[in-house]
Structures are given as structure tokens and as C-alpha cells.
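Customer ticket, subject: "Can you confirm the structure for Exonuclease?"

Message body: Hello, I'm evaluating your service for our small team and ran a test protein. I'd like someone to confirm that this is what the system normally returns, since I don't have a reference to compare against.
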Amino acid sequence: MAYIMVDVESDGPIPGDYSMISFGAVRVDNTLNKTFYGKLKPISEKFIPEALAVSGHSREETLSFNDPRKVMADFKAWINKVAEDRPIFISDNNGFDWMFICWYFHHFLGENPFGFSSQNLGSLYKGIELDTFKNFKHLRRTRHTHHPVDDAKGNAEALLTMKEEMGLKIKL
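Agent reply: Thanks for trying us out. I re-ran your input and got the following:
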């Protein structure tokens, strides 16, 4: 299995009505050198300025981003290249990140190479610690910048720490 850590930035709370502005992905392995970065043109006229501001991009900038269909096709090709077998989607907030990635894959390509399920990094850590109040974010080495590749990489580092230092049994 190939774990792909994903982080999404958007201009609103749900796909369809709002747009995924950018996303980053990292193949989780000991090098963390296989990354993907997509910037997507908005698919809706609607946006929430405060949500968009998190991404660090203006609305005008996003209007010059790439066609979502092409970005999702490029992401699928990248997944096929870096995943020797079944790709596993994992993220810090899979309820949010998965919602956008899954919707965009199905809407623009008619399929999702990740299938129908995702993993949540925070829940995994809470299980290791046997404490639903624990947070893994101190395990990141890469600063959380809201650039989605940085954030995905930091989360991948946390997953590697769980494996190497906390005894998590996981095949990467």
C-alpha cells in the first residue's frame, strides 16, 4: 500500500458550491521527496473571503489557476506513478480534505483512484496514545504554513514519527 498524505485549501466549506483552490500531496516514505502541488481555477462564483485568505491567494490570482479537470488528471497520473499498488488517502482532517478530493475526482474524471475510503492522521494518533484529547501536531518538523505541500509534508513527518518512535505498525 502507498500512503499519500494530502492537504487541501479552499475558498469555502463544501465542494461544488465553493472551490478547492489548491492541494498538496506527499508519498509517505523515508525520503518524502515525491510531492504533487495543484492550483485550481474556481468552479463557482461563490467564495468566502476569510476562507480564501487562509490560502494566501487573492480571488484574482485564483482565476488564473489551472483547469480543474487537467489538475485532477495530472494528480491521478502522479498517484499511479508513485503508488506501486493501492493508494491510501490520509490527511490531518480527512473529513474536509477527502470531501474535496473525492468530489473533484468524481466530478471531473468520473472516478477516484483512492476508492471510497480515507484515513485520519489525528484519529490514528489518538488511538496510539489511547486518549481522544491528544494532538499529534507537535510531531511535525516542517512548519505549518498553509501551503498545502508544506502542510502535507509536516503531517507525513508526524506519521513517520508514529511508526519509527511510537511503534505504529504500518507498511509504507
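A couple of notes from the result: The longest strand covers residues 2-10. The two ends are 7 Å apart (CA to CA). Feel free to reply with more questions.
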